[in-house]
Structure formats: structure tokens, C-alpha cells
Specification:
single chain; alpha/beta; D-Maltodextrin-Binding Protein, domain 2; 3 domains; three-stranded antiparallel β-sheet; 14 helices; globular; SinI_DNA-bd; DNA binding; PBP_domain
């Protein structure tokens, strides 16, 4: 049997179900899956096993067939699959905690995570692959976070932007800052090597926007093309001496020994929902959790977050 690995979207196409339903099957371990790096994959043989396992013999179908016959074909998948699965795309630990609260919520929300950077998270929301995206994308022309990007990246799609937290972005440098790195222009010094974040991440956008304002090309900076997928990975690279400087939030710096943090800019970390989903049980649960004292106290215990406006709608597009 051809046993090639399949992406979740390919599995969804084979089974004629939504991609979110595939993630739900994986989470419930009804469909075997595994990771290749940060990507989920499913073997074709496991898809066939799942199909055979869920087949209902004609003589045993009974009520299932009777009910199914009353459901128009266009709504068949919606009727038989759970509409409570909710995928949140983003990388901050806030989202891990939020999903834990959602999974315990009385509304019965099954919350899943997609670990994408800001740009790709918003694009996935536009494509309908996730139900919520998070972002911290700075616009150097307006000096604001996220709003202008959301207006451009979700054309014709009314959306709501909800504040999650304020975070401090800065430089990760070796203990004592031996290279005396203080501002953005120091990054183009010939004695400085940096480590970068991947394209589409809010941190990469922050760097590129500042370089654009200063008329500096990224290719002139040593290490610009060496990319890592998380703040922790960047901080660890600096701690190991692989680079003199990396950029990330203060929270990650608190978790890595051997580095100092040079604050450079406060950023806003927000959640984006489509306005058509704002009155769903999942959205109601999210607002309830974000505005609860219990949730706020748990985040305060982590440190590194400004939570004054958590749960507040800051813009509607």
C-alpha cells in the first residue's frame, strides 16, 4: 500500500471533511498522527484504517441513516461533525493557558493550537483554517500595532481586534553586554552578529520596519539570514555564543540564563476574530475567560505582561 505522509489538508480532502475536524480527530486520538518538525503528518494507511473503523454496516445503520436522510447533503458534514472545535493560531504561552481554560469551560469548547507567527496566523484566519489569530505587527508609518495590517490582510472581512497583553521587546545580549549594543544602528556594525526570527513573525516585522525607516538593508547585517522559530530559541542562541544579539520579548529572556535584556520597544499583543464569529459560544467563552480575575492572576504570576487592557476590544475593521 502507498503509505506516503499526508498533510491535515490532504486528509481533509480524502475524507471530505473540514481541516478543523481533522485536527479534532487527531486530538481525540481517533486518527493517528505524528510531527515532522513543527508540522503534523498522517500516514495514508492510518487514514484507511480510520475509514474502515468508522464504516457502519447497512443492517446496523438504523437510526443513523434515518437521521442522515433528513439532513440536506450540503449540511451533512456540519450536522455530524462538532462545531465546537476552535483553533487559535499564535505562539505565546498565553494561548496555551487560554486553551486549557476553554477546554474546561461549561460551553464544551475543544480548543486546539496552531503555532504560527503573526502574519501567517492572520492569513490562516482569512483562509478559514483557524477561528482566531494572534499578532504583534508594528506599522512604522502609524506607530501602531496590528490594526493597519488586519485591515489590509482581511479584505472584505469585518473583524474584531481584542487586546491580550502589552509586552516589552528588546535585544538579547551576552551577560554584561560586552559589545555595548544599545540601539538598532548597532546591528550593522561589522563586529556584531545577530540571529533573526522567521519571516512573518511579529519580531521579524519589527526589525524589518526599523531597518526600512533607517534605510538599512538586511543583507548588510551579519547573521540576518540565520532564523529561529521562537523567542526562546533566539535567546538560547545568544546564550551559547552563536550570536552577539537577538530580538525578542522580555518574557523569554527570564527563562534563559547567561543573557541580559536591553528594552527597546513596548508592543501590543492582540487576538483577531472574524465579526461573524463574535456571538458564538467560543467567542463568548474567550471574552469571559480573558476578563476573569482568575485568568489574569495566573498570567501575572508568569511576569513580563502588561494586562491592564486584557479582553478589551481595541478596534473593529
Amino acid at each position: 500500500m502507498d503509505n506516503r505522509p499526508l498533510t491535515p489538508q490532504e486528509v481533509a480532502d480524502i475524507l471530505k471533511i473540514s481541516k478543523s475536524t481533522v485536527y479534532d480527530l487527531m486530538k481525540r486520538r481517533e486518527l493517528n498522527s505524528y510531527r515532522v518538525g513543527k508540522k503534523l503528518r498522517v500516514d495514508l494507511s492510518d487514514v484507511e484504517k480510520y475509514k474502515n473503523k468508522t464504516k457502519i454496516p447497512v443492517q446496523e445503520a438504523g437510526l443513523a441513516d434515518a437521521v442522515k436522510s433528513t439532513v440536506p447533503a450540503a449540511y451533512e458534514e456540519q450536522y455530524f461533525s462538532s462545531n465546537n472545535t476552535f483553533i487559535i493560531s499564535g505562539q505565546d504561552v498565553i494561548l496555551d493557558i487560554l486553551c486549557r481554560y476553554l477546554n474546561k469551560h461549561p460551553a464544551g469548547i475543544r480548543a486546539l493550537r496552531s503555532y504560527e507567527g503573526s502574519y501567517n496566523a492572520v492569513y490562516a484566519l482569512y483562509q478559514g483554517e483557524v477561528q482566531a489569530a494572534t499578532a504583534h505587527m508594528w506599522d512604522s508609518k502609524t506607530g501602531e500595532y496590528n490594526v493597519s495590517y488586519i485591515e489590509r490582510m482581511l479584505p472584505g472581512t469585518p473583524a474584531v481586534i481584542i487586546r491580550l497583553a502589552g509586552r516589552m521587546q528588546g535585544f538579547y545580549v551576552s551577560k554584561g553586554n560586552p559589545r555595548e549594543i544599545r540601539d538598532w544602528r548597532d546591528l550593522r556594525r561589522p563586529d556584531i552578529t545577530i540571529v533573526n526570527r522567521e519571516k512573518g513573525s511579529g519580531t521579524r516585522i519589527l526589525l524589518d520596519e526599523h531597518l526600512r525607516k533607517m534605510g538599512i538593508s538586511g543583507r548588510s547585517i551579519k547573521g540576518y539570514y540565520k532564523e529561529y522559530q521562537s523567542h526562546i530559541a533566539v535567546a538560547s542562541s545568544v546564550a551559547r555564543g552563536e550570536a552577539d544579539c537577538g530580538i525578542g520579548n522580555e518574557k523569554a529572556c527570564l527563562q534563559v540564563q547567561g543573557i541580559d535584556f536591553i528594552p527597546i520597544q513596548k508592543e501590543q499583543y492582540d487576538m483577531i476574530l472574524k465579526k461573524e464569529d463574535i456571538n458564538t459560544p467560543a467567542a463568548d467563552a474567550i471574552f469571559s475567560i480573558l476578563r476573569s480575575e482568575e485568568f489574569k492572576l495566573e498570567l501575572q504570576g508568569l511576569g513580563g505582561y502588561d494586562l491592564d487592557d486584557i479582553g478589551r476590544i481595541i478596534s473593529e475593521t
